[in-house]
Fold:
Amino acid sequence: MPARRSRLAALLFALFVPALMGAGPSAAPPGLDIYFIDVLGGAATLIVTPERESILIDSGWPNLEDRDPKRIVHVLKHVVHLDHLDHMVSTHWHTDHYGGIEGLSKMVRIEHFWDRGLPDYSQPNEDAANFPDGPKENDPLGIAYRKASESKRKTLKAGDTLPLKGEIKTFVIAASGRVIDAKDSPGGASGTRNAACDHAPPDTQPDRSDNARSLAFVFRLGKFDFVDCGDLTWMMEKALVCPVNLVGQIDLYQVTHHGMGISNHPTFVESIAPTVAVMNNGPRKGGSPSTVVLLNKTPSIKASYQLHRNIETGPEENADPDMIANKNLEGGQYIQVNVAPDGSKFSVRIGPDGEPKTFASR
Ligand SMILES: [Zn+2]
Structure:
């Protein structure tokens, strides 16, 4: 490049790049940010701490020309303005939760991988029960995951934490079918019996699928608590709150398992008593009428968001249209939560330009 054009390029760079990086329309105020990225019935929840560390919980679906990794990278690079991912967490071994990792790892540097463990193929009988849904030895997604995460992967158990900087605390409240001990739990070590368990619905058969083995987390900043239970199902959710509430009261609830009715145990939802619910459903996945009805009648819930309208159910079995992020089937719009640096309050908005609604943390 001739010197004059090179100087002109440098001038333009100096003028415009700070404007792009700084307080553009999509830049959030400092604090803790949580983005529920639309991956059409999969899961991809990006958390950015006040120290600007990034944690992605689940990576959406594979294939589809890397639609989901591209959506994640767009938010990471162009909304949050980070150039890498610090922590990649996969809650369990279903395609809609870890399928995006192969594509994602080609687009962005990932420093640490966290999961519930991978099967040891030299112990096929023992691991058949622990890993009912794979990944099987010859599964291309499993092979891609092992390759991307090689020498950077750690297994999480109930009671573990993520090594994050600053004031934010993480609790792994369930992993591989076990729940956290009361003494380590975010609900406190009091061990008081939860009265809500007295009117719990009848127990269902234990779920043998990988859903019940999902990693589940509480993230805490001051008074603010966020829970993401992956795809945990009824009896595991009940074990988290009965006989003792190990979770405590929650401000922000990622509606479990895309809002499916085999998850979102009524006693669990009653006990964690969320203020805001965000459902990562797709137009034809999740958003069961029983879950929507349960959320609507839960007295603690002040606002209930969905990524999509369930197109197979009526308006009364969906959230208020103003609280649904995507109006068309292709979607792509995220829901963003910004938590004040001291955790005292949080605001929720749809996309970069949505009207924020603010709530006090409890
Ligand atoms: Zn799922």
User: Anything to note?
Assistant: Residues 11-26 have pLDDT under 50 and may be disordered. The radius of gyration is 21 Å. The pocket of zinc ion is lined by residues 43, 94, 96-97, 231, 258 (CB under 6 Å).
